[in-house]
Amino acid sequence: MAIRRPQQHRLPPLLAAVVLLALSAVSHARVCPSCGSTPVPYPLSTASDCGDPSYPIRCDAASRSLFFDTSNGSSYPVLSITPETERLVIRPSPFVPGACIAQDLPTNGLQLDRARPFNITQSNTIFYLNCTQWLLRSPLNCTATSPCHAYVNATAEGAPCRPAPICCTFGAGGSSTSYSLRANVTGCSAYRSFVSLNTGSTPVSQWAQREGVEIQWATPREPLCTAQTDCEAGANATCRADPTGAGGVRRCFCNAGLRWDPFSGTCANNVTGCEATGSCGGSNNAPLIAGLTAGLGAALVVGVVGYLLFKRQRRIRAARERIAKERQDILNANNTSGRSAKNFTGREIKRATGNFSRDKLLGSGGYGDVFKGSLDDGTLVAVKCAKVGNTKSTDQVLNEVRILSQVNHRSLVRLLGCCVELEQPLMVYEFIPNGTLFDHLHGLRGSPKPLTWRHRLAIAHQTAEGLAYLHSSAVPPIYHRDVKSSNILLDEKLSAKVSDFGLSRLAESDLSHISTCAQGTLGYLDPEYYRNYQLTDKSDVYSFGVVLLELLTSQKAIDFNRGPDDVNLAVYVQRRVEEERLIETIDKELREGASQVELDTIKALGFLAVSCLEERRQNRPSMKEVAEEIEYIMSIEAGRAVEERPPKSEV
């Protein structure tokens, strides 16, 4: 196609020379030409004679498109460049067709060159897909509620990853040492990345619009030089030694009256304060004007500030009253027992806990903090505080108060009241002095003496009775949904009390299950509930079966020290039972010196635990049947212990 050139007007030779001389002082050839229709801003460099060569990107001659090449040989298309924020976005590696495997898996995923001034930003939300069990020990969010499950289940792009059971979500980058998004066969075989994705408010169908990996570059310094001619034709900068460098490094430093502009890669004119405001020259009446303004406005400012403070206090008070009423309505919702929790004032709670002194902190978790307190009558209490500003934490504390206000059983922690008038809701329950079952089983109480077999049987029976009460005697029935050894408290007599009802749900009498997103703790979570999102009483039975295994083995529900195939305690013990090697899994403190009767009852409880872990929930016993079976095992252990005890005359 012929290109028509516009008519040109020629300048006289002398005038042209003057113009060219003037332009040489401000023009430069450092910015690289556009790649196709995409501009290449400084300092990005597509060739050795433009931009800053330490900021390389590649302009593909065939497609006229930009690519970002990494140190491990992979190449990624550049989707956008924002020079104002010194960032660019690249497209992550696609999946191998029909498989949940990234195409850059052979090169271990996205690996930036650590010697280059690029790093991954914190604006990226990363989904690691098709992961192995090793990822469960990482700080990544690999739970059933992780947003990566929504991506896999609801999008065509994520469909190849649906058969893979484990995926994790991670907020990547954010530091100058964030260089990689790893993919490998021992961790995760695929990944997806999204820029500035709000998984809570953005529909899943729109997530693909934000797909990409955002990379930022460091602000470039003055360019390196070997001679004066390297510095903008020698006009605006001087080539001299870098006082902050080593090894004789020389840079083009701007001359007096000029400053280094890293966005254009040139020396630009300094702008003084008066030039920026246009106030250079003339008389300065600023002091007089300032004095008059201060005098006339002082009274008005004081009056306005006072009025605004008054209005603000009224709004805060009204907001607190509204929030307290809303929380009270939540507590009273679906309360069929007619009982309600006592309302403590914020002043009472602060006095009981020493204004939430850190010396009284008993523990912290995802829900918030628990403090030890003492009421005015001397009653010792535990005060659970929701996290400030965390809606999920607030809902869990309110739900726990609502559940506990409707139940009353010796094996359930006793609720004393709540407080809804402070910034975060609080629940007050009886103080249980002996810690959790988890602490005792895993040596976290500092006591060298382990729990005896009789104590363990009693704890199992008391816990089973508490859960059976929730399932069979409470109206409506209650599903705990987070049964685990760290939620079983032990009092001074080592009697068990089930606690932490933040995830509990009220059942509906006309429904066989509750359809809800799977929540709980890895290692205790019912696999059928995890797959089908159907919560039933048998989900608690499965979790209790894992607790029984902990009582028998003194091992953790998830432990990566057991080897890759035995990380999950339920899988580990079930495999040993199939091999008729159950006794090898039992805590040696129980095995050594145990009588034959004790070994028989240990085996009986082990087989009961395995029946609670049946894959199909229909094959699991109810909690009432479990409690009765444990009571029978206890009677055998206690009765035969009496028979085997020698007469007093022989002692």
UniProtKB/TrEMBL annotation:
So which domain of life are we looking at?
Eukaryota
Q: Which GO terms describe its cellular component?
A: plasma membrane
Q: Where does ATP bind?
A: K384
Methyltransferase: is it a keyword of this entry? no
Record localization = Membrane
Alphabetical UniProt keywords: ATP-binding, Glycoprotein, Kinase, Membrane, Nucleotide-binding, Serine/threonine-protein kinase, Signal, Transferase, Transmembrane, Transmembrane helix
Tell me the ranges covered by the Protein kinase domain, including all copies: 356-633
The cross-references to Pfam families, in alphabetical order and at most eight, read:
GUB_WAK_bind, PK_Tyr_Ser-Thr
Q: How does it sit in the membrane?
A: Single-pass membrane protein
Renumbered to this chain, the signal peptide range is: 1-29
The record ties this protein, via CDD domains, to:
STKc_IRAK (cd14066)
Q: Which InterPro entries does this one have?
A: Kinase-like_dom_sf (IPR011009), Prot_kinase_dom (IPR000719), Protein_kinase_ATP_BS (IPR017441), Ser-Thr/Tyr_kinase_cat_dom (IPR001245), Ser/Thr_kinase_AS (IPR008271), WAK_GUB (IPR025287)
Q: Name one GO molecular function term.
A: protein serine/threonine kinase activity
Ranges that cross the membrane: 288-310
Q: Does the entry feature the keyword Transferase, yes or no?
A: yes
Name of this chain's protein? Protein kinase domain-containing protein
The record lists the lineage as: Eukaryota, Viridiplantae, Streptophyta, Embryophyta, Tracheophyta
